[in-house]
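Key result, reporting period 2: structure in, sequence out.
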C-alpha cells in the first residue's frame, strides 16, 4: 500500500504520519488547528497534558539530529507519554540486526508508537507496513524523501506570522525556498504542503546543480538568479548545503556559494519590507545565511523550533486517537 493510503484509517482519520504528499487539505488544517491548542502548554507552570498517559513512544533515530529528536521527545513528555530514546549507533543494528528485527524487539516491549528518522527513503513507510495494527509510526525524516512534521511546523510558523490559511481560504503569499533543494526532504515536504494549502506563488531558487530535474512539475517556479527569485517575496526559506548527501563537486566552494546565494541584509532588501526568514536548521552562518539576517528581527528560526513541539504534540495525539473533540474536525465537516 502507498504511504499516503497507509496513513489514514477507513474514516479518513490520521493513523500513521508518513508524508505530506497526498494528505488531504482538511486533515492538514486539522493538525495545524490542534497544534494551535497545544502552543500554550510550554508557557504554563506545569508543562503537561495527560492525553498520552500510559503510552510508550520509542524514538528511533538512525541519523544524527538535535532539533527534531529533542522536540519529539519534549512533545511526547508534554503529552505525559513514556519515552524511550534509542541510540541506534550503539544498538543491535550496528551488530547486524535488521531494521525489522529491532522493531519486533521493541514491539515485544509493547511500544505504542515509533518516531523514525532514517537515511533510507521509505524507511518509515516500510516500518508502518509491518507493525501491529494498534502501533503508530511517525516519519521524522527519511533520506531525501520527506520530513512531514518539519513542513507542518513551517506552515504553522507562516500561519502565525502572516495570518495565511485562515479557515478555508487560500493565500496570496509569495514563498521562496532557496538553496540545496535537490538533497532536501524539507523542501519536498514544504512544496507539497504549500501547494495543498494554496499560495500566490511558490518559487525554488538555486544553482542548476542543486535543483532536481524537472522540479517545475512539482508546481514551483524555478529561479537561478537569486535577485529575481527573492523579488517581492513574503516568506524566504533558506536551506543548508547538505554536503553529506552530495556526490562529487556540485559547487565551486562554500565562499563562492555565499557570494551568489547567501542571504545577506542587502539581498533581503529585494523581498517585501515585512518578509519573514525561516530555516529548518542546522544553520551554517556565512554559507547560506549571514549572521545579521539569522539573528535579525525578521528571522523566525527560533519560533520554528518552539512551534515544532506543539505541531509534534498534535501529530502524535491525533495518530494515537487521544485528542478530545468538542466539535467535528474540518476533515469531517462540509462547511
Ligand atoms: C533538516 C533535516 O534533517 O532534514 N533539519 C531538521 O530536521 N531540523 C534539514 C537539514 O538537515 O539541513
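The corresponding designed sequence is given below.
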Amino acid at each position: 500500500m502507498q504511504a499516503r493510503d497507509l496513513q489514514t484509517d477507513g474514516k479518513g482519520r490520521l493513523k500513521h504520519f508518513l508524508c505530506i504528499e497526498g494528505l488531504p487539505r482538511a486533515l492538514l488544517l486539522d493538525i495545524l488547528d490542534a497544534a494551535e491548542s497545544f502552543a500554550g502548554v510550554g508557557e504554563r507552570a506545569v508543562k503537561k497534558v495527560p492525553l498520552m498517559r500510559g503510552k510508550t513512544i520509542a524514538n528511533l533515530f538512525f541519523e544524527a539530529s538535535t532539533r527534531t529528536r529533542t522536540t519529539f521527545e519534549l512533545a511526547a513528555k508534554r503529552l505525559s507519554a513514556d519515552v524511550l530514546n534509542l541510540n541506534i549507533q550503539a544498538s543491535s543494528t550496528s551488530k547486524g540486526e535488521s531494521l525489522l528485527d529491532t522493531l519486533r524487539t521493541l514491539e515485544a516491549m509493547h511500544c505504542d508508537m515509533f518516531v523514525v528518522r532514517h537515511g533510507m527513503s521509505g524507511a518509515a513507510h516500510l516500518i508502518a507496513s509491518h507493525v501491529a495494527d494498534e502501533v503508530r509510526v511517525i516519519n521524522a525524516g527519511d533520506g531525501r524523501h520527506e520530513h512531514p512534521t518539519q513542513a507542518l511546523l513551517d506552515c504553522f510558523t507562516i500561519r502565525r506570522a502572516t495570518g495565511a490559511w485562515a479557515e478555508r481560504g487560500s493565500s496570496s503569499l509569495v514563498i521562496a525556498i532557496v538553496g540545496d533543494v535537490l538533497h532536501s526532504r524539507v523542501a519536498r515536504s514544504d512544496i507539497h504542503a504549500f501547494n495543498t494549502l494554496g499560495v500566490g506563488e511558490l518559487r525554488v531558487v538555486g544553482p542548476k546543480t542543486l535543483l532536481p530535474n524537472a522540479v517545475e512539475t512539482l508546481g514551483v517556479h524555478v529561479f537561478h538568479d537569486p535577485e529575481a527569485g527573492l523579488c517581492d517575496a513574503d516568506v524566504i526559506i533558506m536551506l543548508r548545503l547538505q554536503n553529506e548527501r552530495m556526490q562529487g563537486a556540485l559547487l565551486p566552494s562554500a565562499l563562492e556559494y555565499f557570494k551568489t546565494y547567501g542571504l545577506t541584509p542587502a539581498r533581503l532588501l529585494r523581498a517585501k519590507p515585512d518578509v519573514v526568514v525561516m530555516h529548518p536548521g542546522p544553520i551554517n552562518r556565512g554559507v547560506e545565511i549571514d549572521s545579521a539576517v539569522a539573528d535579525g528581527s525578521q528571522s523566525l528560526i527560533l519560533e520554528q523550533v518552539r512551534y515544532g513541539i506543539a505541531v509534534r504534540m498534535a501529530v502524535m495525539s491525533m495518530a494515537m486517537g487521544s485528542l478530545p473533540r468538542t466539535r467535528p474536525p474540518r476533515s469531517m465537516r462540509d462547511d
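Residues 38 and 44 are 11 Å apart (CA to CA). The radius of gyration is 20 Å. This case is discussed further under Risks and Mitigation.
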